[in-house]
Amino acid sequence: MSILVDGETRLCVSGITGREGTFHSLNNKRYGTQVVSGVTPGKGGQSVDGIPVFNSFREAVEETDANTAMVFVPARFAADSILEAAEAGIRTIVAITEGIPAHDELRTSAHLRGLGDVRLIGPNCPGVLSPGKANVGIIPAAFFREGNVGVVSRSGTLTYQIGNELAQRGFGNSSIVGIGGDPVPGSSFIDVLALFEADPETDLVVMSGEIGGSAEEEAAEFIADNVSKPVVGYVAGFTAPPGKTMGHAGAIVSGSKGTARAKAEALEAAGVRVGRTPTEVSEIVVETLGT
Amino acid sequence: MDLLEYQGKQLFARHGVPVPTGRPAATVDEAVTAADAVGYPCVVKAQVQIGGRGKLGGIKVASGREEAREHAAAILGMEIRGLRVHEVWIEEASSIEAEHYASIVFDRSAHAPLILFSTKGGVDIEQVAEEDPGAIASLHVDPLLGYQQFHGRRLAFEAGIDADLVRPLTGLLAKLYDAFVGEDAMLIEVNPLIVTPERELRALDAKVTLDGNALFRHPDNAALRNPSAEDAQEQMAKERSLTYVKLDGDIGILGNGAGLVMSTLDVVAQAGGRPANFLDAGGGSKADAIVAAVEVILSDEKVRAVLFNIFGGITRCDEVAKGLIEAFERVRPQVPFVVRLDGTNDEEGRRLLRDAQLPGLVVEATMLGAAERVVELATGTAIAPGRAEPGPSRTTPTLQTR
N or C, which end of chain B is more exposed by having fewer CB within 10 Å? Predict the structure, then answer.
């Protein structure tokens, strides 16, 4: 198995006719992902390298049985596109777009929660890769192979760094999930940890957090009560000064809450071993699972 | 994006939140004209984002024109905790019967706005939260439903506001919520929210943080400036569309992706170095962005060595290498560079750097190795390559490790 995306994934890409949208859709397709359709309003009837383009998600779902959406449209249109995908019946939505207004994310997330069974990954995330099965997003798949370590992270490139350190020590991944660096992520660490806990192919989970908010502390509490598999943690931003946003909208330390130290301590108190560098994370994985 | 007090008050006024009449001024003459228009007595307030600026001499009451001139002359240009005062806000003096507190924050973990209200205003609310948590009433608002009158009543009764102020408070919170959503704010705080002798509520201070991602919807807000909060390098980076935060060390840092850059800062600090900045060149960094980034990093004179830590996903390492080569031609850096390239097109990127033989540039194979190396170079425990020692640079042997 694996989580979120696999051989059953039938992907429809919103914004497939844009430069980045086309590039990554075709990349995902080459990897073996079933990219069945795309959506660009006004460009229905065209195709991108044989992938049919529709005017709406509704049409795309009807015609191509898409069950997963990837959103690649500019920030000011992205919330609308996410909501449209959900309305058309798609239940797994991966939003790559960066810079969506926070209030748009808030309304979108509140609506999706009301629907109950829609899973949104992102926005502002690198997507999900299940090595050997499917790649939905922009993760450079060549660096990862199949294996038993699940990875969930708020940061894209840091995910690649950690994944690559694991690969160099001979570990592969069941799935790699970037939940994104925005203040209101569609899926939290907890949502993804629960999926990894239930996934028989995952033996260990690496969880990579960063300063800002309290998602890591909440995850620590969840792990203590609900996760039987070993979890190895990492937190970026020990040297970040308070009051400054470190690139990710979500990465701002206000007051004493949200510091890297507080997060690392909360995770350790929940029995999670926390690596101080990405390299140390991979060393702990080696110690835990053996080589 | 944090607003100055007067910018926040003007934003409040647009949404019907009662604020004292006032005018901004950037010079002493402007301040006197503003004071005449506002009337006496008036208050001269330094426009810097520092709590407790009153105690530091940044807020003064003027009973007449001469005093207004004196205060404006003293406050304009003064430095409060390192921030220079570029503007003052002249406002009518308010009579205060009681000081309350109100705020709306973006509560990420609850996925909802959180409204806080307390009758204990005028002091640091975190102190109130610690000493008397029962004095703060709070509730979440469903973002799809929005603020309702019952929300306000619940907060008013829970916090124990005087009975005659329940209805005014309920109305005022509706206007604040309207501003919070309408202006795409991340935070709105009114402390103190005063009660006047006429039993009216007024926002005597305003702290507003807007969502930078939503400024395209608010061109007026996007044009607001806060010169005292803008560091020269940060300003330069903003003009080049780079995410840059200045720190106080001497090792310049560039990476791609916020998380990886934060991690790089940590690893450099663990190796004993002190980062000079955070710079995220972003996804898909092209050569131009790299040149701009090098210029920004080196504009900080404290920088003694620079670390590039790239893991290419969308970003292609050959593009980064091309940018670096171009930057070396244009800027001719006088400090050593340590470069680590991994990911998309990394071999091509390293080959380009090797062929270019850039002076003072070394390539390291790992993030940890690169961090250790740059710390050695910055602290002077290693000889800068390509300078003290002619002949082949260290680039060649390190490249062969991969």
Answer: C
Nearest-by-CA chain A residue for B340: A161
Q: List CB contacts (< 8 A) between B367 and chain A.
A: 161, 277-279
Task: Tell me the C-alpha distance between A252 and A245, whole Å.
Answer: 4
Q: What burial letters (b/e) apply to B173-182, b meaning 16+ CB within 10 Å?
A: bbbbbbbbbe
Active site residues of A: 248
CB B258 within 8 A of CB A251: yes
- Calpha distance A284→A262 (Å, rounded): 20
> Residue-wise pLDDT tens for chain A (291 aa)?
789 999 999 999 999 999 889 999 999 999 999 999 999 999 999 999 999 999 999 999 999 999 999 999 999 999 999 999 999 999 999 999 999 999 999 999 999 999 989 999 999 999 999 999 999 999 989 889 999 999 999 988 899 999 989 999 999 999 999 999 888 889 999 999 999 999 999 999 999 999 888 889 999 999 999 999 999 999 999 988 776 666 555 555 554 567 899 999 999 999 999 999 999 999 999 999 986
Task: Tell the burial category of B43 from Cβ atoms under 10 Å away from its Cβ (0-12, 13-18, 19+).
Answer: buried
Q: What single-letter amino acid sits at B186?
A: M
> For chain B, what are the domain ranges?
21-92, 98-222, 230-378
What would be the CATH architecture of the domain defined by B98-222?
2-Layer Sandwich (3.30)
Q: Which residues 5-34 in chain A show a CB within 8 A of chain B?
A: 20
pTM, two decimals, is 0.88
CB B281 within 8 A of CB B242: yes
Q: Phi and psi for A87 in degrees, rounded to 5?
A: -65, -30
Distance CA B371, CA B380 (A): 14
Question: Distance between CA atoms of A69 and B337, rounded to whole angstroms?
Answer: 42
- What region does B281 belong to: left with phi over 0, alpha with psi -120 to 50, or beta? alpha
Helix (H, G, I), strand (E, B) or coil at A39: strand
DSSP state of B217: G
Give per-residue pLDDT as tens, A24-74. Answer: 999 999 999 999 999 999 999 999 999 999 999 999 999 999 999 999 999
CATH class assigned to B21-92: alpha beta
Residue-by-residue DSSP string for B227-294: GGG--HHHHHHHHTT-EEEE-SSSEEEEESSHHHHHHHHHHHHHTT--B-EEEE--TT--HHHHHHHH
Stated length of chain A: 291
Asked whether the beta carbons of residue A102 and residue B184 sit closer than 8 angstroms, the reply is yes
**Any idea which architecture B230-378 has in CATH?**
3-Layer(aba) Sandwich (3.40)
Judged by DSSP in three states, A282 sits in helix
How many residue pairs from chains A and B have C-beta atoms closer than 8 A?
A: 172
Q: Inter-chain contact A155–B275, Cβ cutoff 8 Å? A: no
Using a pLDDT cut of 70, give the percent of chain A over it: 94
